[in-house]
Design brief:
With 362 residues, the protein is of the alpha/beta class. Helices cover 42% and strands 17% of the residues. It has 14 helices and twelve strands. Strands 4, 5, 6, 7, 8, 9, 10, 11 and 12 form a nine-stranded mixed beta sheet that branches. It has a three-stranded antiparallel beta sheet with strand order 1-2-3, with no helix packed on it. β9 and β10 (160-161) form a beta hairpin. The longest helix has 23 residues, at 271-293.
């Protein structure tokens, strides 16, 4: 929030709060940062300086280093000695990988709000303060994530926002806000871990992070669990710089454009080829459903969206060989709106009807 005459102004909600409405300092939640490192000596100094330059400093930083070999451990020791806040450095005995490394860092945090941090970005000075105030003003939110500016390796260029890269546009955000959070996330993760804050009280439902989440990594898992409870929010503001470089384990990379399936192909290709992607989607959703069912109650409000999508792809991937027997279930699914609902977001308006035709004829 920005200081104004007589109070604070929220750039997120557009609301001005007078001093009486603003929580007193002793009511402010404590803040931890969970920072994971691995051979980050080239980028860590810049990110670390951006943490030191925050308008609101964290109460602690927990660093989990995944057996770096490039001088990162020595650099972290220097940071910890000079930091204006407590720093704990955890050195892994075996390499954990990013999922379990973040799990270890998150588990060690003691703050009421935990920020996830990558080693190679840069946080804008207002990031912690803005997101802490958002969580204060939205007590039902257990998870929140912000946007970022996508930059080059030298942190230059702010022409593109991260949400554009993951198709989290205005229309998709409107679907999210109207109750389609789980649907949006099952199309692909929109939440970047290093842009996320989590209430520590929500960690028991998130951890441990499963070893394998088909199509997702640790941040996608956190987002999906939050979606089951409808407790994940987004802050429509870029609050950091997202560095892109060749050493990234996970990053924003151009996705290959799938070959267009022509009508002639639909009528001549082997049925196994047509069914393969549907089987993969059905298996993915089934595994995700099983993983989530172990963490949340069966009446979690976001689960029906998952089950509806799973039922759709289960039906499509197990249609009978007899074409006549496919007509009724396919047309019923079309009437229920599922072919339109689960079409690729970037697909043409007639794509659902091509899928119907393919399911009946192929």
């Amino acid at each position: 929030m920005e200081r104004t005459t007589g109070g604070l102004f929220s750039p997120i909600t557009g609301t001005k709060y007078n001093d009486a409405m603003t929580p007193a300092l002793h009511d402010q939640p404590t803040v931890s940062i969970a920072l994971c490192t691995y051979n980050g000596v080239n980028y860590l100094p810049t990110q670390w300086q951006s943490l030191v330059n925050q308008q609101r400093l964290p109460n602690e930083i927990i660093i989990s280093d995944d057996l770096s070999t490039d001088g990162t451990p020595h650099l972290l020791t220097q940071f910890a000695a000079d930091a204006p806040f407590p720093v704990t450095v955890l050195a892994n005995k075996t390499r954990l990988g990013y999922n379990k490394n973040f799990e270890r860092a998150l588990s060690a945090c003691t703050g009421e709000l935990i920020f996830i941090c990558d080693q190679d970005d840069l946080w804008l000075p207002e990031k912690i303060d803005t997101m802490v105030h958002y969580m204060i003003q939205h007590p039902t939110a257990q998870i929140a994530f912000c946007d970022a500016w996508v930059t080059d390796e030298q942190l230059q260029g702010r022409e593109k926002r991260f949400w554009e890269s993951v198709r989290f546009d205005a229309q998709t955000r409107a679907r999210w806000l109207s109750g389609g959070t789980m649907d949006v996330l099952l199309e692909g993760n929109r939440m970047m871990g290093c842009a996320t804050v989590i209430r520590r009280s929500f960690l028991p439902i998130l951890l441990p992070i499963p070893d394998k989440i088909p199509g997702y990594i640790y941040d996608g898992w956190i987002a999906l669990v939050g979606a089951t409870q409808n407790v994940i929010h987004f802050v429509d503001q870029p609050l950091q710089l997202y560095r892109t470089h060749v050493q990234q384990q996970v990053g924003v990379r151009p996705q290959p454009i799938p070959a267009r399936t022509r009508l002639r192909d639909r009528l001549t290709r082997h049925r196994a080829r047509k069914l393969a992607p549907l089987h993969r989607k059905q298996i993915q959703l089934s595994i995700i459903s099983q993983l989530l069912s172990k963490r949340v109650s069966s009446d979690a409000p976001g689960l029906p969206e998952l089950y509806r999508r799973l039922a759709h792809f289960t039906l499509r991937s197990h249609l009978p060989h007899n074409r006549l027997k496919r007509i009724a279930p396919v047309l019923t699914n079309l009437w229920r709106g599922n072919y339109t609902r689960y079409a690729e977001p970037a697909a043409n308006w007639y794509a659902p009807f091509l899928a119907v035709l393919g399911d009946i004829l192929e």
